[in-house]
Write a structure and sequence with these properties.
With about 300 residues, the chain is an alpha/beta fold. The chain contains 13 helices and nine strands. Helices cover about 45% and strands about 15% of the residues. The strands form two sheets. Strands 4-3-1-2-8-9 form a six-stranded parallel β-sheet, with helices on both faces. A three-stranded parallel β-sheet has the order 6-5-7, sandwiched between helices. It binds D-glutamic acid (DGL).
């Protein structure tokens, strides 16, 4: 099975694209709703929670776990990957044999570096597909990132983008009020638009050419982000980018792909109230969630 881990509901915006692009696989989605949001939490807390979530999914038989949460991917993915790889304990080595953990930062960074290099002074349009408009020289090298405090403070996007293109200039803006507003189904309210506009003021003054939506919840405000930033700012869709990258990864790693079941099953697990997950999760996934199970992952 493929495991998808998130702090709560948000990862379902990534997962829904997996279901569109790679429907044939068996999946378990685990949301740690009891301890969400992760966005304002300490590095130590996010690490402990994420480790527990990933271990739970491995124990359930997942061969591949994708950390869909930006805050968790930003803060602990690298550390977890290294710890598992370097850990000399035989039980860890046995557990990790043929298993992998992936996150959401690297796919986005690769896409944005590609846009910066290829688009020159002509944007491919806000969603990367529609016809673009001319933009001033150098704009394509300026990248904005929005996310939770944890993601922005970690500078993960900045570090990874610079590895691919040291000429890029990266500007971050934490938007901590957006996650609770979106979970309350307030994405369309004028108050939310006003707050978003305020958050984006700094990035607009930096004249960024590309904007990374570095939080699982922000696709709910996609149109509003595009409207505020204007036509000559490219905003890739995180779910589409991560799903395309996963498809590519599986085609390049037949040794992992061949060990993944392809019966099209889905299991939804939450660490908090199952009924609430079914209700709000259904909105995030864009389809009804039939069976949701409450689990305890804190050991
Ligand atoms: N999933 C988180 C992220 O993408 C947002 C919600 C939270 O703070 O837990 O950063």
């Amino acid at each position: 099975m493929i495991g998808v881990f998130d702090s709560g509901f948000g990862g379902l915006t990534i997962f829904r694209e997996f279901l569109k692009t790679l429907p044939q696989y068996d999946y378990i989605y685990l949301g740690d709703n009891a301890r969400a949001p992760y966005g304002n939490r300490s590095h130590e807390a996010v690490k402990r929670f994420t480790e527990q979530g990933v271990n739970y999914l491995f124990d359930k038989g997942c061969k591949l776990v994708i950390i869909a949460c930006n805050t968790a991917s930003s803060n602990v993915l690298r550390e977890l990957q290294e710890e598992y790889l370097r850990n000399p304990a035989p039980e860890i080595a046995a557990k990790m044999k043929g298993r992998k953990i992936l996150g959401v930062i690297r796919p986005m960074v690769e896409e944005v570096a590609r846009i910066a290099e290829n688009s020159g002074n002509l944007t491919p349009g806000v969603d990367g597909k529609t016809p673009g408009v001319k933009r001033p020289a150098g704009k394509n090298l300026r990248v904005g990132v929005v996310g939770t405090r944890g993601t922005i403070n970690s500078k993960s996007y900045e570090t990874e983008l610079r590895k691919l293109n040291p000429d890029l200039k990266i500007y971050g803006q934490a938007c901590p009020l957006l996650v609770p507003l979106i979970e309350e189904d307030w994405a369309d309210k004028p108050e939310t638009r006003m707050i978003l506009k305020k958050y984006l003021r700094y990035l607009m003054s930096c004249n960024v050419g590309t904007l990374i939506l570095g939080c699982t919840h922000y696709p709910f405000l996609y149109k509003e982000f595009c409207r505020v930033m204007g036509r000559n700012v490219v905003i890739p869709h995180p779910g589409e980018v991560v799903a395309a990258s996963l498809k590519d990864y599986l085609s390049r790693h037949p040794e992992i792909d061949s060990r993944l079941a392809k019966k099209g099953t889905r299991h939804y697990l939450t660490t908090d109230i199952a009924d609430r997950f079914r209700e709000i999760g259904g909105r995030f996934l864009g389809q009804k969630l039939d069976k949701v199970e409450k689990v305890d992952i804190a050991k």
